[in-house]
Write a structure and sequence with these properties.
272 residues, mainly alpha, flat
């Protein structure tokens, strides 16, 4: 089919997409993902064009213009939807980084108590959110006959979090060199903990001016501005209608929601 050929060509031009899909936890081949994305972009473009036709019924629109618009929108939406795995990776990375210290400490305690590495990883795989899910993949591979080093190495390649990769790499390196896994693990956990503390401190420094700006633009200015607007409107005999006040309220609500989204996106992936 024509769409299969397009998906195959795009897949060959994006060899890194396979790793991105694995890190995002999206199953299937790159060709299948590209095909689904292309079809979704086309259907969305058709829906947008139909909506535009209903909105501009009185305006005669050329079929050629609609076709060109459809193609442009399909390409734009395809490129946009093609970035969705990156969003999934960022979400998974944040979830993993929240639990990495607790999972690592639990793994360290297990090893210090004399438990084997496999049993310790099996224990971690039963909890700790997405960190446990990654260890569950390792345990499953080992149960299926894969060597421990190969199982850990395969997860390192697809892990969405740099901290988790460093943790697993330290375990893998200790297994290859015969070093003490617990001591190597303790060192990398201390380093990750220090880096997370630095992220929290930097977040606090950025939060202070943003909070002050929020107080000015989202609290003080709207309250005083509406008061002054009502006073001025009464002086010049301008009638403030209910829809106008509702519109101002909606604008202020969107403004405050924007600030909340910005602050939330800046928050470090650390369980405070």
């Amino acid at each position: 089919m024509f769409i299969d050929d397009i998906a195959e060509r795009i897949s060959k031009s994006m060899p890194e997409l396979k790793t991105i899909l694995l890190q995002a936890g999206i199953k299937g081949t790159t060709e299948a993902f590209i095909k689904r994305t292309l079809v979704s972009a086309f259907y969305l473009s058709c829906g947008i064009n139909i909506l535009l036709l209903f909105l501009f019924l009185k305006i005669k629109i050329s079929p050629l213009f609609l076709l060109i618009t459809l193609l442009i929108m399909t390409v734009f939406l395809f490129v946009y939807l093609l970035k969705t795995p990156v969003v999934y990776i960022q979400k998974r990375r944040k979830e993993i980084n929240k639990e990495i210290i607790y999972a690592g400490r639990a793994l360290l305690i297990e090893l210090d108590s004399g438990v084997s590495l496999f049993s310790a990883m099996l224990s971690i795989s039963r909890g700790y959110g997405m960190v446990g899910d990654e260890f569950k993949k390792i345990v499953t591979k080992i149960k299926m006959g894969t060597h421990t080093e190969e199982a850990i190495d395969s997860i390192i390649e697809t892990a969405p979090s740099d901290n988790l990769r460093r943790l697993l790499w330290q375990i893998l390196n200790s297994l290859k060199t015969g070093a003490n896994v617990a001591r190597s693990l303790e060192e990398v956990l201390d380093q990750i903990a220090r880096e997370q503390m630095i992220e929290v401190e930097n977040y606090g420094k950025k939060l202070n001016p943003i909070a002050m700006f929020y107080m000015m633009m989202a609290v003080i200015v709207p309250s005083l501005g509406i008061t002054m607007l009502v006073v001025i409107a009464s002086l010049i005999s301008f009638n403030m209608t209910l829809p106008m006040l509702i519109g101002l309220s909606v604008v202020m609500g969107l403004f405050q929601a924007m600030f909340i989204i910005i602050i939330k996106s800046m928050r470090p992936a650390v369980e405070l």
